[in-house]
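User: Some background: our group keeps a shared notebook of sequences we're curious about, and every so often someone picks one and asks for a predicted structure to add to the entry. Today it's my turn. The entry only has the sequence so far, pasted here. Could you supply the structure so I can complete it?
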Amino acid sequence: MARRKQRWRCKSGEQPTEFDKRIMYLENKGALVPTRELVLNDEQIEGIRRSGVVNTGVLDAVEKAIRPGMNTQEIDDICMEYCRQHGAIPACLNYGGDKDTLPFPKSVCTSINEVVCHGIPKKEDVLEEGDIINVDFTTILDGYYADASRMFIVGGRTTPEKEQLVRVTKECLEIGMEAAKPWGWVNDIGRAIEKHAKKYHYGVVRDLCGHGVGLHFHDDPEVAHFAQRGNGMLLVPGMVFTIEPMINMGTYKVFIDEGDPYGWEVISEDELPSAQWEHTLLMTEHGVEILTY
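Assistant: Of course. Here's the predicted structure to add to the notebook entry:
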């Protein structure tokens, strides 16, 4: 039997540190550990932190402007202008594209009511009082990525059912952050989130997940928001990743909108409302630090 390729390697010519030894010990016990590239240095973390400041500014600008009667193209315009003024690039613009999808055509995802994620801004999508909308933005600043999303209740008031969904989804993010521990495991996050969502009989979307971020838009580890078998990847100080639970009022199942010519918009299967909150997080020796406040 071929020996499994080792993920964690010491730097060439250097003796392993206690940090290295701890990871290698767990890897030798069969744990899935990060590669060295996923543990970032101080310079890289500061770059992501600066990108996070701009990312937060983008969402703050949206929060100040969002109102009934506004269309989602106006939200895209706000994000583009804020990036331009602060020397940043929107990561979503022209992202992706394969045999099933075209590149994402706008700078931000605007997902209203039953749209789970990847909603495309457009002039014909006019916000009404009581709508709930997720605005999801990823910033590139000097080559570093920061990714966050917020929920907004248009006009400030909605139904009690939608208001509860928005609140509980934010609680799911907070509970997921509490479950993310240094020298803990990725799958602890999903178990904690799903346990809370199930109290309200909500569905936790399984087809999409959180992810490593910082040097790239998407990286390891994949962060599922529902309970999975096993531990998942080891979390160690220096890793940067998102937690971004997508919580549906009904079933966890989703589909791609056939009316979307780009092939991006994800909708809850029963077309009941969905909500999402997201932060970019740095794992430290004491727990996670939010980089997208």
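Suggested note for the entry: Residues 42-65 form the longest helix (24 residues). The chain has five helices and 15 strands.
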